[in-house]
Amino acid sequence: MENIDNIVPIKIEDEMRNSFLDYAMSVIVSRALPDARDGLKPVHRRILYSMYQLKNFHNRPYLKSARIVGDVIGRFHPHGDTAVYDALVRLAQNFAQRYPLVDGQGNFGSIDGDSAAAMRYTESRLQKISDLILADIDKETVNFAPNYDDKELEPTVMPSRLPQLLINGCDGIAVGMATKIPPHNVSEIAAALEALIEDPDITIDGLMEHIKGPDFPTAGFIYGVAGIRQAYQTGHGSVIMRARTEIEEFKNGRERIIIKEIPYQVNKSRLIEKIADLVRAKKIEGISDLRDESAKEDIRVVIEIKKTDNAEIILNNLFKMTPMQSTFGCNVVALVKGVPKVLNLKQLLEIFYEHRREVVLRRTAYELRKAQERAHILEGLKIAVENIDEVVALIRAASDAPEAHEGLKNKFELSDIQAKAILDMRLAKLTGLERDKIINEYNEVMKIIADLEDILNTPQRVTDLILEEIRLLKENFGDERRTEIIASAADEFTMESLVSDEDVAVTVSLTGYVKRTPLSQISSQKRGGKGKSGMLTREEDVVRDLFITSNHQTILCFSNKGRVYDIKVYQLPELPLRSKGRHFASLIKFSEGEHIVSVLPIKEFTEGSFLISATAKGYIKKTELMAYSSVRANGIVALKLDDDDKLIGCDITNGKEEILLATRLGKAIRFKEAEIRPMGRASRGVTGIRFGEEGDQVIGMEVIRGDSTVLSVCENGYGKRTPLSEYRAQSRGGKGIYTIKVTERNGPVVGISQVDNEDDLMCMTSAGKVTRFNVSEVGIIGRLTQGVRLMNVDQGETVISMCKVAKIEGEEL
């Protein structure tokens, strides 16, 4: 039985914590995260070093990938061969690496997600650019550490002249952290390094003058620079990638979308499957055919569009619903002295530059030591050839080599190394020409030593050497940017970009139901037909407003409480002619008792246009239309109202019109719009009409256009038409003149309208009865009359509203 004194009690939670931390740190440091200096994870570093030791260079024959993988796992990387081969394959894929480090021969996979062939079938060798990563590794430029079984040494970091972490990027998932760094263009990175070296205080914005943004191997577009700048400044940011597409026109005027480049790390086959799924699910309509015409490395996906559909709108939907637009989430995490850190762009460049300085200094120190060692030997050889007769005599007189060795050391004050070199010297070196070569080589080596010592003692020399390396990097491997950066962001798609800007008819009913109908559905009715019903409404409802506009235009909706709401036409429900529509209350969040009194289509907000609004208490206000160009989602104040006042109507003018206001007790006033000075949006306005009797209020406003008649309708079903010429112009703010004689017989006025013989009118009663008639049926009589009966009203019933019925020419709406 074991000695229980050797048993140490440990809490299981402590053991779990410590063991998990050890595991986590092993994954972070030894597997998942790259070193900020050479930009490589351990597996990539071991692959490149194994290929270096196998002399598997770009100018040497290929080796079987299985040979390389076996060498890696047998000597340095004690993990599965599949993981090592997958890493090797990725280093060779030109759609995964901006600058591949491995030259692969055979099937190394495709952008469609196809796997590489088995390692026994493929062959590999280093790319020429990989020489820069391994350059000077044999000159004690980096530290080496024992491998997993302590039988060999492996580099802890590469002496890389290549800013690998930035030009090829990196993906890795550790425990509790991850890294995702995009690839870049080597010419831009080289230019930024030069700028940093020449000006260490340069800002990230200054560096971005050289580095425009990521440069993906699959090209495409980047939309917006805000995410790029955030990633460069903080180490975290989102870059919006988009496929490169063209819209081609082919037979019969039809269009097709051609996808030529796709976002980085998007699987082309899955992208095509996603588009097909959306078409089958009818989430995207208008696509008649979809096929992949790609060949080798050239991408060409053809999407044919139906003749009646808009390719631009379908393309925007594809960007919104498929990986044709994707986000690359930058998370720049790398190991700095073995510790994971989030790094910004300048820090990455500074770490690489400091690494290069250390490598250059260590390389120079190594070369200096080697040169000094060679000079030491040459000094001995020089002494020997200058005293050749004595040297030869001494060696001939010696009984054996050790005696000759000691004799040379003592006689000429040589070191062991020098004496051995003299003894190893061939007789050919004793010729006159060879003696001169030794002396010349000694002089050259002394110059090299002086130069190397100067480099070590002069920091600027080190800087100049690094700048020269960067210049050669740009000269030998620099290329044109592949990914195009578009300054405007495409972070969000608006509905406007997803809806065709076609002409539509917008209908608004008297009780507040609204809809839009494509004009093509209305105009398809042949002339001479029976027409189409414009709105399926209740018996007591009818179309109050109808106007032709387009989906991308704005309508302003004014409520009785003096607020204005804007709605894009495409936000209205698109419904057929026979549909009733949806109530405004489902589109706008009203307060209690609020409803829409005026709906105005706005083609554009321009200077010189005005909004005229009138209230029940007789106020009139004129405001620049531009004041309503920015309306919040919950509306804004259109005009200031007293607690007992309400808005009764609005209209748009050019500032030179005439206004007619009518009151409940039969008065009306006509005045020039010029008498109203423009004022701010939140003001109450000025007096338009004064009331001569208590209980009177404004019930209607008309902007006078042309020379027609004014129709007045009273509560008891009476009304009349009067020529506009009988309404003389007055000064604003007066009591007005009679427009109709209000008596117990006809009752108070409920509304007025400027009409001509082609107009239809609709009256609604408190009992829900509706009467519709043509205005030509109403006689034209003077202002001071009571009018004629327009509709029969039962006892206790009154007319509560009237409106001119909107219709489209040629249609019975």
What does this structure look like?
Strand 18 (503-509) and strand 19 (513-518) form a beta hairpin. 30% of the residues lie in helices and 25% in strands. Strands 14-9-8-17 form a 4-stranded mixed beta sheet. A 4-stranded antiparallel beta sheet has the order 10-11-13-12, with helices on one face. It has a 4-stranded antiparallel beta sheet with strand order 20-18-19-23. The longest helix has 42 residues, at 345-386. It starts with 11 loop residues before the first helix and ends in an 8-residue tail after the last strand. With 813 residues, the protein is an alpha+beta fold.
Structural key phrases:
Topoisomerase II, domain 5, Gyrase A, domain 2, Topoisomerase, domain 3, disordered C terminus, 4 domains
| CATH fold descriptor of the largest domain | Neuraminidase
Shape: elongated
Percent in strands:
15-25%
Write out the CATH superfamily name of the largest domain: DNA gyrase/topoisomerase IV, subunit A, C-terminal
Oligomeric composition of the shown chains: single chain
Task: Detail the poorly predicted runs.
Answer: 523-540, 809-813
